[in-house]
Specification:
248 residues; alpha+beta; Four Helix Bundle (Hemerythrin (Met), subunit A); Severin; 2 domains; four-stranded mixed beta sheet; 10 helices; 4 strands; 40% helix; zinc ion binding; Gelsolin-like_dom_sf; SNARE binding; Protein transport protein SEC23
Length: 248
Amino acid sequence: QNLPEGRNQLHTQCQQIVQAGNVCPGVEALQFLPLYIMGMLKSPAFRATNDISADMRTYIWMRLETLMVSQMAAYYYPRMMSLHNAPDSCGVPDEQGNVQLPDMLNLTSESMTQDGVYLLDDGDAISIWVGSAVDPGFVHAVFGAQSFDQLDPAAAEACLGTRGDALSNKVAAILRQVRADRPVPFMQHYVLRQGDPRETRFFASLIEDRTVGLQSTYSEFLTRMGYRPQQQQQQQAPPQQMPPGMRR
C-alpha cells in the first residue's frame, strides 16, 4: 500500500471501531483510540507533508518495527511536563532511587505559557522548550545563562545538570528518571529557545492542536470519528464531563 491508502485505512478503521463502540455501555476508554490514531497520522511516519524524504520515512518505518509497545506509544503520543513550576516532591529520589515526575500535560499549546520551561519526551529524544518570559533565576540556575536573551542552546545543553544548584539537581534528576523509563535508545536532550526554528518539531508533537500533519484538533477528530460520550448517549444532553484532552 502507498502512504495515502495507509492513512485512509487508519482513518476508516478508527471510525468504524468508534462508531461500533458507541452502542456499547462502559467504553469511555474508547476515546483514546482516536487519540493514538491521530498521533500516528500526525507523526513523521504517516503525515502527508513534503518535509519528510522517502529515505527518512523508510528509516522511520524500519525503526518503528524494532520498538516495544511502550516506545511506540511514546512516539505517537509523547509526554510533556513543566519544569519551571514542578512541585517540591518532584525530582527527589526515594529510597529505591526512583524520582517522581511532574504531571503530564495535554499535548496542546494551551498547556504552555511564555514564562514556562517544558520537557517533551517522544521516546527518541528529549526536547526542552524555554519561553521568552522565563524567570532569569531559573535560566541561571539550570542553564548557566544570565537571561533568556543570553541563553545559548548548545552551551545550555552541555551545562544542564552540572551546576550543582538545588534547582539544577532537581531538573537533572527528572531527566535521569525520564531516561530510566525508556533506557533504549539513549535519548539526547536538546534545548530550544522560543522562536528558534528548531521548535517546529516540538510544536508538531503537540498533536491535540492543529499541526502540519493534520489540521484537526483532538476534539474535532473525535467528532469526525463519530465518538459520543456515554452521558450524551444516555441522557441525550450535552455531556457533563469531557473526555481527557477536550475543552469546552
